[in-house]
Amino acid sequence: MSFAQLAFYFFAAVMIVAATMVITIRNPVKAALFLVLAFVSGACVWMTLEAEFLAIVLVLVYVGAVMVLFLFVVMMLDVNLSRLREGFGEYLPIGGLVAVLMVLEMAIVLSADSFDQQNMPRPEPEAEGYSNTKELGRLLYTFYVYPFEIAALILLVAIIAAIALTLRKRPETKYQNPAKQVAVKREDRVRLVKMAAERRKDDQS
Amino acid sequence: MDLMLSYMQGWPGWVQVMLISVAKIVLILIPLLLAVAYTTYAERKLIGYMQIRIGPNRVGPRGWLQPIADAFKLLLKEAAIPTNANRYLFQLAPVISITAALAAWAVIPISDTLVLANIDASLLYILALTSMGVYGVIIAGWASNSKYAFLGAMRSAAQIVAYEIAMGFALVGVLMVAGSLNLGDVVRGQQGSVLDWYIWPLFPLFLVYFISGVAETNRAPFDVAEGESELVAGFHVEYSGMPFAVFFLAEYANIILISALTAIMFLGGWHAPINTPFTIVPPGLWFIGKAAFVLFFFLWFRATFPRYRYDQIMRLGWKVFIPVTLVWIGVLGFFMFFTPFGHMFH
């Protein structure tokens, strides 16, 4: 077994264990942390496929940003575990059905001829100096430029919609105007009063 | 290295590769840890002088052995784990912090040939790893089962996520002018004199990057995550002894990392400022000198500025820095492709 194979099996095993833990462990914070582990090992598997751009971006976006926000929310929620477990039997049949369907679909797709060793041979290892990032960028901005831009636009709309949904002005909330705060001069706040010096009544000296 | 190679002739290839990697890692880590130790000393001394006092001067000549005494003290203290804390996560948190802080050093080019891992996407690698450091903070805050720690972790996480975006955009500017994600190529693109450094075409991005770097490392004036007047010490309140020391090491390793990156991306890395007379100094020393110069600002800021209010930090990150970087990226793109001045940015 070569080192690459060894690495693949190691990362894949870690990923599967972590993914299983995500859905079996009780504590939601720990579940989120196992999801992070699953992402990281997924990134490592991609790295062994020479997809270093995708691997690093997976870590950057999902581990570095999305899961941090996730953890943020999960940590602050006080999840009641006994209530979560209440409806287990109720949801089991429909959940099981979905699971079986998904496994079937995956089996159909993956066992088809198009994924055969002949039709999908192992990609040739790229020559030294090949930049995965550059190639991806070139492809995205030339061949796939319209799908790429449309996807970006949809995301932008989603961001604006999310902001519009959560942005509400409440009349009792007070806001600061930093521009005004910065523009304040000394004269606006301090008034110097000139007056003659006075002597206290009981001052004898 | 050559000596090692000749000694190991005939050994299996992977053993050679592994031993050489380990040797290189040690060669980077030991100077780094020493630098961390003496950064703390420099900080205490400098802030001392800025506040017209002497600072540590008891251990060794002029207090030079103070960091070593501190390290010993922390080693010998008990690492207490609070009751009801989550044992494993509590102990995992400092490990995550230090791992992220140290692993990023693998791709830092100290000179033209001196780099542990010359990988193509090193800029992205650095971004990804520094973004993982926040887990140490969050997990520490949550696992300690303490309100102060938790509040500190929340503040720090929100702050790091906010400033990471501005930082990423600033790096997009560097990437545009350098045309490469490789840090070595970024420095090679700044060959020449002072005028060829990226600080000039990217001046707004340089400011944004450096200030975001200060915010990312939770340093003053952005240190609300520790905010000792409100939160005692923030996310590491409950840590003592060695785990605390590890957090401390991670923080300072991150500060030095940000200084090194600023030197690499904006101040010409290992290149001398003027060509002929200054190239006598070895390139590695130039790099270290520039990083130390930037590092000095971190310490200076701490002695100078009062702490930001939390909402001001958020406003600065989201509403000032991100628009500034976006506009400058647009300006850069315009100049590079539509005007004859494009060569100035290459």
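Residues 52-76 of chain A form the longest helix (25 residues).
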